[in-house]
Every structure is written in C-alpha cells, then in structure tokens.
C-alpha cells in the first residue's frame, strides 16, 4: 500500500505521438487521488492517444510523467503489468471473453495478476460484482447480458485490484442515454469511495449533469478548466 500524498497522475512538458506525428505537446497537469476528471475534444484531437500513453500502451518519449507512482519515461516492458495492476482501463467496446462466464472472465484477470488462492478469488469476484450491482450474474455468459450490464462487468473487472485510478475511454459511447446515466452513477459511486477517474467522453449531457473538472484536447494542446475558462460547445 502507498501512503504518499503525491498526485495519482502527473505530467510535465509531455508530448504525445502517433507514429512520427506529434498529436499533443506541452501537456502539463496533475490528477489528485480521488479526483474525477473529464477528457474532451473533437474526434482525432488526441484523447485516446493521451490515455494510451498514461496506461503505457504508447511510450512516453518527451517530458516526464508518473502514474500511480510509476515513472512512464523509459518504463521497462516488464514493469507494464505492475503499472496495470494499479490502474483500471475501460473502453467503449466491452472486450469481455465471449466464451467464458462472467466469473471466469474476472477469475482470468485475478489469476493473471497473482491471485493464487481460489477462495480469495471467489470472494473478490463476489465483492466487485456486488459493487456494480450484478452479483446475480456470476454464472452468465456475456451474450446473456445487456450492453449496460456488460459494461458493468467490465467496470467490475477494472476494480478487481483496487486501482488508484480508472482510465475510461468513451465508456458510455455505445449505450442508450438512460443506461449511460446508470453507468455514470456507478462511476460517481466508485469515485466517492476514493478511486480517481479520468474519463474521455463526447457526451455533453453527462458533463452537464455531473459537472467536474474538464481537460480539453484542442489544437495540439490540453486545456484545463482548473487553469483557464473555455467553452464546451457542440462537438467540443
Ligand atoms: N494507431 C495509430 N497510428 C497512427 N495514427 C493514429 C493511430 N491512432 C490514432 N492516430 C491518429 O492520432 C490522432 C489522434 O487520435 P486519437 O484516437 O487519439 O483521437 P481521439 O481524440 O481519441 O478521437 P476519437 O474521439 O475519435 O476517439 C488522429 O489524427 C489519429 O488519426
């Protein structure tokens, strides 16, 4: 367990690349423990690329950054799984293993992250399913669940190792407004219990309903609502 009070995410003079192209530059922000932050910007403005850099799917080549006490610059490949245990990643498309039950999907992650004791795995699976309101779904196959329920299982999976922060890339993008709202409420509950959240979204309604700090990718920079005022207009 870490007792440091340092931010869970800290970026200094970071640049984000795809291939040889600079997507964002001079990126500077911190996210405190337990904070909830939106990430917005037009299609192609760099939200996913920024998130990918934060969960070490893209290398950090310029500037310095720490995520959950891991320094991303020159992060050895063997360290990536250890970083990933401290963070949770949630995508728009649910990415559950379709040929396994909910419980097996979750157990798969626990075994891959060092949980050797079967009864402890079972206990933890029951806890996270309870947290997302789907404790009755343990033995169901993903296709027996609605889109919103599948997304809840993905969130449960992301919570298994008690992450310091959740990175969510358009987690409500494929869902009806009402279902999306339920997912947002779940994110609020998770956040209220102390987990930081960085959520990329195009959904202006959601930001209006649950207003929080906003980071906006625009013209190759990241604007921060905590630092400067900017408008959130159509299509961002
Ligand atoms: N794998 C890749 N290889 C090369 N270029 C890429 C790759 N992925 C994204 N890009 C480019 O990087 C830029 C930023 O894309 P990115 O996906 O980060 O934007 P985004 O803000 O997340 O967009 P969206 O809202 O559509 O998800 C775009 O110009 C895109 O074409």
Automatic annotation (TrEMBL):
<dbReference type="InterPro" id="IPR027417">
    <property type="entry name" value="P-loop_NTPase"/>
</dbReference>
<dbReference type="InterPro" id="IPR003593">
    <property type="entry name" value="AAA+_ATPase"/>
</dbReference>
<dbReference type="Pfam" id="PF00005">
    <property type="entry name" value="ABC_tran"/>
</dbReference>
<keyword id="KW-0132">Cell division</keyword>
<keyword id="KW-0067">ATP-binding</keyword>
<keyword id="KW-0547">Nucleotide-binding</keyword>
<feature type="domain" description="ABC transporter">
    <location>
        <begin position="9"/>
        <end position="235"/>
    </location>
</feature>
<dbReference type="InterPro" id="IPR017871">
    <property type="entry name" value="ABC_transporter-like_CS"/>
</dbReference>
<dbReference type="GO" id="GO:0005524">
    <property type="term" value="F:ATP binding"/>
</dbReference>
<keyword id="KW-0131">Cell cycle</keyword>
<protein>
    <submittedName>
        <fullName>Cell division ATP-binding protein FtsE</fullName>
    </submittedName>
</protein>
<dbReference type="InterPro" id="IPR003439">
    <property type="entry name" value="ABC_transporter-like_ATP-bd"/>
</dbReference>
<dbReference type="InterPro" id="IPR015854">
    <property type="entry name" value="ABC_transpr_LolD-like"/>
</dbReference>
<dbReference type="GO" id="GO:0051301">
    <property type="term" value="P:cell division"/>
</dbReference>
